[in-house]
Structure formats: structure tokens, C-alpha cells
Write a structure and sequence with these properties.
Nucleoside Triphosphate Pyrophosphohydrolase, 42% helix, 13 helices, alpha/beta, six-stranded mixed beta sheet, Rossmann fold, 2 domains, 345 residues
Length: 345
């Protein structure tokens, strides 16, 4: 089990984590910041200059999951206490979804304090021995996180179990977290999608509203928006797999088998294995059908109908290219063969 202590600087994550180790038998501390420190040493300066925070590195998010999983295995499966600020929801999806795929449950806690208290705690941070300028730069960095934290509170408060640390000592904070754990709080109802071990065949279905906008869904277990659909099971016809996924994900039963629009070969880019990606035309949903869309909270967070231009802002480039050519195929009533999102033949 992962006990993720979230919150901005000054909330008391690190001190509470150390106290929590004494309250959770067999628990161990895992600090993902050390993964960031290692990447700062190993990656070329040019790559590091391209990001403002090591959390923006896909390698950091991937290594947090892989390293955390390895530590759980090496330590006999006891709870892993993780004091780490995580303010971007898509990064939460990617990391927690990675642990879920490895059958490691995550309990998410937000240690919160009012901003005036956070500012006071940051101002009172201890000076680094012999390096007052370094201490001041740390304070400046801590203060710069307050605005993103305010912005993230809307989703954090709904996603995590909140423990207000404003008037709590680190020990009492840890006791509150331990009590909440015993009461079952902090559970992340996130789908456990197994990591592929080879190339996969996946079927997506494009659904449209009366304005010909396309439906996108926001998965909880991976970053970025997506089309309804999923991996084709062994022995399952791809179009039928798309119909099944649409029914499971959004509660829409398609009356007709959808028409194929594109076949796209996605090349393997480690750690992903790639494979064939099919997009089908599921047709236009009636107005009342769109209003009855259902979302399973453990798998999908949101849905929306978007124009092609709006989709470009939401979809990762590889998925947007697939959508762009699928829309052209729909206009021309044809099927397109793609390789890595580019038509061939």
C-alpha cells in the first residue's frame, strides 16, 4: 500500500511522514524527490533546461512508479509512506494509475493549512549552515508553489482525504492520518489496468453530437483525454470490442456495428509496446442520448463534445493525428491506413 501525503510546502508532509512510520508497523519512507535528484545528475543539461520542474519529465513519473514498486517488493510489501507534492491532476492519474496497474493500492491524503500559516512556516524555515543565500532561494521556490496549490485545491479536495494541519503538531498530524487509514479513508477508486507485456490491438469509437462535435473522455488512470474504447480481448472482433467498451465506459448501447475509419500502427516507444489502433465511426448520438451519458468514477472523470480545433488542445499529438485522419476518412466515406499517425499507401 502507498500512503501518499500530498500538500504544498509548509504543510508538514516530511515531518508527519517520519512520525507516521512509527504508527504503521512495517512501513518505510519513499521520497520521490530523490528520483528527481538522480535525474538532474544523469540527464543532459539541454534536456533539463526544457522543463521547469523535474515532475514534467516523463522519466521521473515512470521511475517513481517503478522505484516505488521495487521498494515495496524489497521491503516485504509493507506500507510505503510518500511525502510528495503533486499538484497536476494528469500526473496524479499517471502515477497512481501505474501503481494500480501493479496491484498496489494508493491512499491519498492532503495535508492542508491556511495560506497565512503556510507563509509563516516557509519564512521560519531553518537556515542552511553556511548558505543563507541558498536558504533564501528555497523560500522563494516554496512561495512560488502557493498559487499553483490554490488552483489545484479544487480537484485535490475532491480526490484526497483532507487533514487540516493548521493547528496540529507533526505527531498529531500523523495520528490523524493513521486514524483515517484505519477508517478506510483516502482510497483512490482508480481502475486497475494491467500494463501490457507485448503489442496490443485497441479499438476506439468516435461518437458525435448534433453539431458533429466528437466525444472525448478523461480517464483517471492515464494522462490526457481519449476516445471511448479499449484493448481488444483475445478472440474478440475489434468492432464488437469497441461497442463493449462504449457500453461499459459511458453507458451507451450502439444498435449497429460501427464502421471502420482508420487503422494506425503505433510504433513501440519504450516502455510502451505499441500495436494496432483502430478507430470506428459510432455515429451521431441523439440529444437525449448525450444527456444520459454515464461515467464510472473509477475509470473516467469527465466527458465533453469538442471541435477538431478543441481536440488538438486536449489530445496527445499521436491521438490527435489519428483523430484528424479519422475525420477526413469519415468525410470521404473511406478507410485510411496509417503508420504512426501518417497515411501510407
Amino acid at each position: 500500500m502507498i500512503v501518499w501525503l500530498n500538500g504544498t510546502f509548509g504543510a508538514g508532509k516530511t515531518t508527519a511522514a517520519r512520525e507516521l512510520l512509527e504508527l504503521l508497523p512495517g512501513s518505510h519512507l519513499f521520497d520521490p524527490e530523490l528520483v528527481g535528484d538522480a535525474l538532474r545528475v544523469m540527464l543532459p543539461r539541454k534536456r533539463l533546461d526544457e522543463v521547469t520542474d523535474y515532475q514534467d519529465l516523463p522519466s521521473w513519473r515512470r521511475l517513481v512508479v517503478e522505484t516505488g514498486t521495487a521498494v515495496v517488493s524489497e521491503t516485504g510489501g509493507g506500507p510505503l509512506v510518500v511525502p510528495m507534492t503533486l499538484l497536476r491532476q494528469e500526473y496524479r492519474d499517471e502515477i497512481f494509475g501505474g501503481f494500480a496497474a501493479r496491484r498496489i493500492p494508493v491512499r491519498h491524503f492532503l495535508l492542508h493549512a491556511e495560506e497565512t500559516i503556510l507563509r509563516r512556516r516557509i519564512a521560519q524555515r531553518e537556515e542552511l549552515p553556511g548558505d543563507p543565500e541558498g536558504s533564501e532561494s528555497v523560500r522563494t521556490r516554496c512561495l512560488s508553489h502557493l498559487a499553483p496549490y490554490r488552483k489545484a485545491l479544487a480537484w485535490l479536495g475532491a480526490d484526497a482525504h483532507v487533514v487540516d494541519t493548521s493547528e496540529l503538531t507533526p505527531r498529531r498530524t500523523a495520528e490523524r492520518v493513521a486514524e483515517a487509514l484505519r477508517d478506510g479513508h483516502g482510497r483512490c477508486e482508480i481502475v486497475q489496468t494491467s500494463e501490457p507485456t507485448a503489442e496490443t490491438l485497441a479499438a476506439g469509437v468516435l461518437l458525435f453530437d448534433e453539431q458533429d462535435r466528437v466525444l472525448l473522455v478523461d480517464p483517471t488512470y492515464k494522462p490526457g483525454w481519449e476516445f471511448p474504447g479499449g484493448v481488444v480481448e483475445a478472440g474478440e472482433p475489434p468492432a464488437r470490442a469497441g461497442m463493449r467498451e462504449v457500453a461499459e465506459e459511458i453507458g451507451v448501447e450502439l444498435a449497429d456495428v460501427p464502421r471502420l475509419l482508420v487503422v494506425d500502427w503505433e510504433p513501440p516507444v519504450p516502455p510502451a509496446y505499441g500495436g494496432l489502433r483502430l478507430l470506428f465511426d459510432g455515429g451521431r448520438l441523439p440529444r437525449d442520448g448525450a444527456e444520459r451519458l454515464l461515467l464510472p468514477g473509477a475509470e473516467l472523470r469527465d466527458w465533453r463534445f469538442v471541435t477538431e480545433e478543441e481536440a488538438m488542445e486536449l489530445l496527445p499529438p499521436v491521438r490527435f493525428n489519428r483523430l484528424r485522419w479519422a475525420l477526413r476518412a469519415r468525410e470521404r466515406a473511406t478507410v485510411l491506413n496509417l503508420e504512426a499517425g501518417v497515411p501510407v499507401g
